[in-house]
Each structure stands twice: as C-alpha cells, then as structure tokens.
Amino acid sequence: MKQHIYESRVRYAETDAMGFVHNSKYLVYFEEARTDLVRAAGYPYSKVEAEGIIFPVSEAKLEYKKPIGYDVRFRIVTTIAYMRHVSVKFNYTMLTDDDTVVCTGSTVHAALDRNTLDFADVPDRLREVLQPYVEPRR
C-alpha cells in the first residue's frame, strides 16, 4: 500500500488568539493533502469534475492530539481506507518534523452526478489510480 506525503508549514493567519492552529484549519490541511494525492496519482479532481462527477464530503472526523503554532513544519500522511461503488474514505495522520502526531482524521466523499446530484459510480480511471493507496483489509 502506498502512502502520500503532503508537506507544509503553519501560516500566521491559520493561528488563533492562543497562538495555535485554529481547529477549523485542520480540515483545510486535509483537503490540501487529499487533492495533492489525487493530483500526484495522475487524475486530478479538476479532470473528474470536468467529466461531470463531484465528490462532496459526506462525513468528517478529527481527533486533535497536540496543538502546534506558527511556522511549525508538518506533514500529512494520507491513505485510503476504502473505495466503494459510490464513495471513498481517506485517512489522515498529521505529524511534525520530530514525528509528533498532531491530528488524525478521516473524510468520506460521495460521488455525485454534477447535474442531477444523484449518486454516481466512482469513475474507473480514478478508481484505478487510487487503488495503490487503499489500505489492506484487517
């Protein structure tokens, strides 16, 4: 199973009055990591959307482990928990450079037809490029 690594640094605007990353920013970081994975796999969301399929978040879970502040470098390890007929679940682990786990979480995305908003199949090409990131069943 492949893992995708997204790296960044906390920007000042992402911190709160206490000097830590605001809780709402973690989902933005996860989105950056997820879209970076899909782009790196060779089939970016923009291409999928141009074909009439959208992937809104249907579920999001986060577990905050340790706060981090401005200018801290971090990485997010992203894998795929499962790919079903009409949905994909991504798992995220956010770590600092010294391997401290900052936050873990997951998002589930439903494939929808852009015009009707009915459920749609996850496109075969997307399924193909994401398959290496799917975690083995336990």
Explain how this protein is built.
- The chain contains three helices and seven strands.
- The mean pLDDT is 97.
- A hairpin with a 3-residue loop joins β4 and β5.
- It has one domain (4-133): Roll (Thiol Ester Dehydrase, Chain A).
- The strands form two sheets. It has a five-stranded antiparallel sheet, with helices on one face. The chain has a two-stranded antiparallel sheet with strand order 2-7.
- The protein is of the alpha+beta class and 138 residues long.
Biggest sheet features: 5 strands, antiparallel
Order of helices and strands: EHHEEEEEEH
Shape: globular
User: What CATH architecture label applies?
Assistant: Roll
Summarize the structure.
The chain is built from three helices and seven strands, in the order E-H-H-E-E-E-E-E-E-H. With 138 residues, the chain is of the alpha+beta class.
